[in-house]
Structure formats: C-alpha cells, structure tokens
Write a structure and sequence with these properties.
Shape of chain B: globular
Number of domains of chain B: 1
CATH topology of the largest domain in chain A: Cytochrome-c3 Hydrogenase, chain B
CATH superfamily of the largest domain in chain A: Cytochrome-c3 Hydrogenase, chain B
Number of domains of chain A: 2
Strand order of the largest sheet of chain A: 1-2-3
Radius of gyration of chain A: 21 Å
Largest sheet of chain B: none
Distance between the termini of chain A: 18 Å
Number of helices of chain B: 13
Strand content of chain A: 5-15%
Number of helices of chain A: 15
Helix content of chain B: 55-70%
CATH architecture of the largest domain in chain A: Orthogonal Bundle
Oligomer: heterodimer
Strand content of chain B: under 5%
Helix content of chain A: 40-55%
Order of helices and strands of chain A: EEEHHHHHEEHHHHHHEEEHHHH
Number of strands of chain B: 0
Largest sheet of chain A: 3 strands, antiparallel
Structural class of chain B: mainly alpha
Chain lengths: 372, 334
Amino acid sequence: MANEFLEPITEQTFYLNMGPQHPSTHGVLRLFLKLDGEYIVEADPVVGYGHRGHEKMAESHLYEQFLPNSSRMDYLAGLIFNHGYVAAVEKMASIEVPQRAEYIRVICAELNRISSHLLWFGTYIMDLGGFTPFLYSFDDRENILDILDRVSGSRLTYSYCRFGGVARDLDDEFIKATREFIDRLRGRWNDYHNLVTKNVIFIHRAKDVGLINRELALRFGCTGPILRAAGVGYDVRKAEPYSVYPEFDFEIPTGTTGDALDRYMVRLQEMEQSLRIIEQALDRLPEGPIRSAVPHKVRPPKGDYYFAVESARGALGYYIVSDGTSYPYRLKARVPSYGNLQVLTDVLPGTLVADTISILGSIDIVVPEVDR
Amino acid sequence: MAAWQKLVNFLGPDLTVIIVGLVAILALVQVNALFLVWLERKVAAHIQLRIGPKEVGPFGILQTIVDGVKLVGKELITPRHADRKLFMLAPIAIFLPVLVSFVVIPFSERLQVRDLNVGLLLIFGFSTFNVLAVLIGGWASNNKYSLLGAIRSVAQNVAYEIPLLLSILSVMLYSNSLKMSVIVESQARVWNVFWMPVAALIYLICATAETNRAPFDIPEAESELVAGFHTEYSGMRFALFFLAEYSNMLIVASVATTLFFGGWQSPPLLGFLPVPGVVWFLAKTYVLIFIIIWVRWTFPRLRFDQLMNFCWKIMIPAALLHLIVYAGIIKLIN
C-alpha cells in the first residue's frame, strides 16, 4: 500500500499525491509518487476510492437482478460487460441463444467497443494538451450513443442483454443509422490521422514513452491493447472464440515495441476491425426470434464456471460459483484494467511527471472497473 | 478658464500626456482582455465544432464581463501555509509591468504615449518581470503543483528569452535604433517580415513560449499540474493572472507588428485606402493574436525536456546564425 515506502524525506526527493482529485487521473485513481525534481523515483497506484462492492452485492441478488450491476463496473463498455455476464450464466444453466440474438449482441458490443476507444482517443490527446480532437471524437461517439439508445433505451449503462437473448429487436432505422455511422467514421480516419497521428509533437510525446514489453505485460497479466501493442496477438475473440465471432473475418492488430504510440495505433486499428465485424454482421443478420424461453428464476446446477469475453480494455472473465440456488454463491469479475494498472509501478520510475500522464492515458483505465 | 485647463496648465504638457495615456492604456488593457477572452472562446468553439458563448449580449460578447463580475464576487482564499505577503504580491507583480510596456507601443504615427529612445529595451526589460511574478506566486502558494509550475516557467522563460532577443537584434541593426517609431519608419519600403522571415518566425515561436501559450503552456499544463503556478489563486487574484496573460499576448503581437509587419503602415498595394494607421496596426495585431489562438487549439503540448532541447539545440543556433548572416548583409547594404 501507499505507506510502504514512506521513509524520511530527504532534500532531494519529495512525495506527490496525484489524485484522487486531479484532472488527469480519470476518476478517482490516486497515484502516490516519489519525485526527484520532475523525475519519478517510485510510483504506487492506490486503488479503492471507487469501490462499491459489486461482487459482494451479487451474492444477495438473483442472477437476473445482478445484470444492471455488470454494466456499472465499466461504464464505458457496459454492453460488453453485460454480454460477458449473460453469456457466463447461459453457460452455467445451458441456455440456448437464438442466432439472431447472438448477431445483435455482437453488433452492439462492437459499437460499444468503438465508443469506448473513441472516448479514450479524445481523453488521451487531451491529457497531452490537445483539446480539439476530444470534441471531434465525442461528436462521433455521440452517434453511437444515439444508435444504442435507440435499441436499448440508455446511453451508458445498457443492461440490454437478457438470459437467452436480448431485450429488444433491431429495427430498420437502427440498421440504416449504423450503416451511415460506419461510412461516417471511415471518412473521419483521415481527419484523425492528419490532426493527431502525423503531428510531430504528438509523436514526440508518445514514441518510446512507457515501454511495456512482452515480458512485463505477461508478468502483470495485462491484456487487451496493452498486450497486443507489446506484440502478443492475444484476443479472447480469437483465442477462446465465443458467441458468433468465429463467423466473422477480422484481424488482431499488434504493435512491435509496446510504447504509447503502439498502443495508440493498435486501438485505432481495432476500431476499423470492429467496423468490419459490424458490417459483416449487418449483412448476414439472420431472421428469427431474439429470445429463447428461459425459466423465470435461473437456477444453475452446482459448480464453478468461468467465461471470458474481450472487453474494450482486455480480457474480462466472470468466475461464478453456484450452490444450486437462484443466487450466486460467489461472483468474481476478472477485470482487465486491474492488471493493466498495476504495471505502472514498473513503468513509471525514471520517467517525467509529464510522461506519467501520457502513460496513464495510453493504458486507458476505468477506475470503477478496477475498484468494482 | 475651465477647470480641466487649469489642471493641464498645472501639470504641464508632458505629465498630462502620461496621465491621459496611462488611463487610456488601462482602458485598452481591460477592453482588450474582455475581447480576447471572448475571441479565444469563440475561435476555440468553432475549431471544435461548437458555438461558444452566445447568451449574454450579441454573439455572447458580454459573456466575459459577466464572468468578471462573478470573479470579483468570489472569495479571496489564501492557503493556510502560504507566504501571505508574497502570495498577495504575485498577481500585482505580474500585472503592473504589462501596463508599463504599453507606454512605448506606437499604435499610429502620433498615438504613442512616450517615444523613448530605448523603447524596445524597456519592453523586454519589463516583460522579464513576468518570470519573477510567476516564481513568487508558485513559491508562495506552498503547493507542490504550483512550485513545479513555477520552476518550469522560470527555466522556460529564461531559455526562450535568448533566441527572442537574438531575433530582434537583426531588426535593431537594420533600423539602427531602439526607438519604436524609427523602427516602423525603417520599414517604409519593405516590411521586415519579407526579407527576414526567419527572424519573424523565431520571434513568434519564442513569444508564444514567453506568454506560456500552448504548445508551450507547460507551466500551467492542466493535465499534469492542475493549473500550475496559479492553482491556489481564486477570485480577482486569479483574474489578474488571466488579465496579464491576455495583455501579454497583445504586447507580443504589437511588438511583432511593430518590428516585422510595418507597424501602422498600410499593407503593400493598399496604401490608397483612407484608413487611419491605428486601424492597420490593430488589424495586424489581432491577426497575429488569432494565429496564436489557432495554434493553441490545434497542437498538443510538448514535454518539458523536449521544450528545452528545442530551445537550446534549434532555436538559439538558428537565431545566432540568422544574426550573423543578416549583420553581414546589412553591413554590405550600407
């Protein structure tokens, strides 16, 4: 914890509490830094300021009742968290899901992934001091929120998936709006690259900053774009295929060195791949029911179950222990940001305060997801 | 004889000009700050696909006045462990030199408070005070973020003053004077910017750094240091820092207009228009300010060490080389 390295202060070094209230710690993260001038000697991310006890809450709720909680863990990729939870319970109770519902889930989850990456894009550049791209990416993200709002009724915490299907069917308007959005976002890449990717100041701020190499990423259990930027092409969608992902043709973008620029590029390419998945899913969207018949109270048989999906930030796993009742005996969410955040202790020492912001931003943490 | 004439007789012409001038400058500084804050917000908004202030007054132009009223009404908070005297001194120390610098700016042939023969030197002498005030403010706040901001600011401003002064040396060599009016008149045939564009570019870059504007806004880097050296300031004290920033922008842009863009003279080929010099001067100045604002809302921020490397490895050698080359050219011309 934070007090571990509190030793008598010298003339050379001083301690700085960055957060939990700071413009760039994205929520309530507290970074405990030991500084030598502007250089960081030691760093310790202190988590827990956003702890709400979701996992404990699950134990006193029906399986159905816990569904809204899942999208409140990661408020930026709520639909993917829904999807993971619902799919885990379906695996436990052996519930069949109609093909159309699986397609709808994939479409919405990929839209949600893009919206999460767009928000990251804006805030990352804002952390580096560029304000304008933030509003551009939020303008695009607003489109996704409108589309998802149309089908799920909410913009952030969707609770859209149901055991055995989804809550509502897609209509023609949704499909039209999504297709328009795909074209629109494809037209935007040029703007993004001209404004940010090719900007010499941005490249200086991101290149060779915050190197998280393969070995380090694996040691800390990093997943998602951080692991892929380090050159490991691990993506749950390909490694342990779930839902209807095997039917789609998409690639897993990887980086080479694992610096902030690689993570940036990986995320931008991922958005394009998600667009490809959505396009294919819309083309092949089957007709049929969107929900299968599910008992009013789900009572999975006794046992331990684990199910993982790829969230916007990495591998998200639900580990659920069932004692045969309609309440989970224990629910544990293996969230990607937790491992991704801890890597800071190894990456930050030796960098400048300004790099801290760049590295933290490039890791893309969501604090409520870390704390749960 | 009217009372005001008695007063003028009593004060004498010189003192009257100075008093009237200072009052006019004070008014100009205030109006300029009000206008610039509005302009900045409006330009930023349109760059960012927004509308910007629009509620108060036509096109929201009175928004800044309302904001000012709000700031006046705010409580002046002094942190408990702050150095109270220095803490109070800093906002004043940053604002006063700005006012003085306006004394020598030639807005037109006759519209100038004092045409000192060391005008340029006075401006750069006073602009250096800026650093001191920032250091005082950052130190007295007794806040780690403020201190880091102040340290950065001092290192940055001291470094960037060197290429700044080197870039204007060639202008001084050419016009053979530090007097602002002489410098403007020396550009009667061709503006300095056309035959020494490198110096103008170096000046503009360094001026952006001197005024702590993005991409050189490292002392107040919001995402790193919260608000840098003025983190702890509230109410009117904060407003004074703000006022100083926008007045500084006006000064560096006016100096750039005077040194490189022909001051109050009309642009080439437009001399036939019946437009007074002061309009040309202000037009050029605000175009430059617009460019500074535009840059701010386009670029991300440099990192501190990169900023210093850029200064010591690129700007200073370039400015030195430029000075040597142009000194040779000027010698040959004469």
